[in-house]
Amino acid sequence: MTKVSVFIVLFFMIFSVNAQVSIGRSVSPTNLYIRGIHEKYFDFLETTTSYLIVPESLDFEITKEIISDVWTYNDIVFVPAEDYDEQSLMQKGNTIIRIHDTGYKLERKEEGNTTRTVNAWFAYKFELISYYEVTVNKKGKKKPDILKLADICFTQSMHHRYKMQPAYNVKKAQNIIDEPDIYNFYLGYIKNYFQILNKGLTERRTIDLEEKFIDESNMKLLKDQTLYAPEWILKRINPFTGMVKAIEQPEKLFKDYEHSYEMLSYDALNDKILSGEEFYYLMQTQFNEHQILSIINSVSGAIIYSAERKSYKVSSKDIRGISKLISE
User: Fold this and answer.
1) Residue 32: CA atoms inside 13 Å, Cβ hemisphere, count?
2) Predicted structure pTM score
3) What's the total number of domains in the chain?
4) How far is CA 176 from CA 81, 89, 100, 305, in A?
5) Within a domain: 25
6) Tens digits of per-residue pLDDT, 108-161?
7) What pLDDT, on a 0 to 100 scale, did the predictor assign at position 29?
8) Closest Cα to residue 283, out of 327, 232, 323?
9) What CA–CA distance (Å, rounded) separates 102 from 120?
């Protein structure tokens, strides 16, 4: 049997598996690769007006209050998602921050007009795009030159990941069935991510999620402080079926962590951020096979540690490495 090696990229609506901030010209929505941003584009971006399209799942007035308090990069206007008109805002000098929730899969055509999925990628994020030029053709149709410059990504819950699989079994999902679709799509986390984005754009910095970063002086503060971590990092999944295999005990995961730590649920950690208390928390980002671990300041949003590797789980080795950096 001869197989035709033709690949087609198909698009379908689905939530993602990730959580962090990237600044740079995206090469592809299915990987972490970015290019640097030319100074002329930073010059242009600073002069634009940003329009944040607030999803219906977030309280509009509270979102406006929280983000207005941390956003200083350029003028910002808040638009409810239900009122968003893409065509009317498609004008030179407008920057749009909106939810991108497209999934991608790669299919192989085989003999007999059958297809087989050979790979899949997911993306649920705020994406920042800017209309660098907008021309109108003779038929009145707009043709925009779009700069894709930044993403704020979010972490899909174990249950939602599992629900997307053909082998989903509600009985096997009982220990995770009450989870939200996205662990950290809450305003405490979102506040910190917009602080990271605002600071990075203001400083004209590229943020590459594949680059390791360690703020040694602030890491040492954790010798005398408690590191907070979300309970979802204890869950172990089968990367092929999405089913939870086990829930690890925190004592086992943190067995080599020589300092104080505390596990919190996703919503309790969010509320703690919104309380205004200053502390550091561990955040896990899963972008397909790439895992990014970061440590974030709850008040400033400053990242003091970030490291990427190919994995589907936080391991005791990851935690041991963080502990060593604190102790040095």
Assistant:
1) 24
2) 0.84
3) 2
4) 29, 40, 25, 29
5) yes
6) 556 666 665 544 555 678 999 999 999 999 988 999 999 999 988 888 777 877
7) 53
8) 232
9) 11
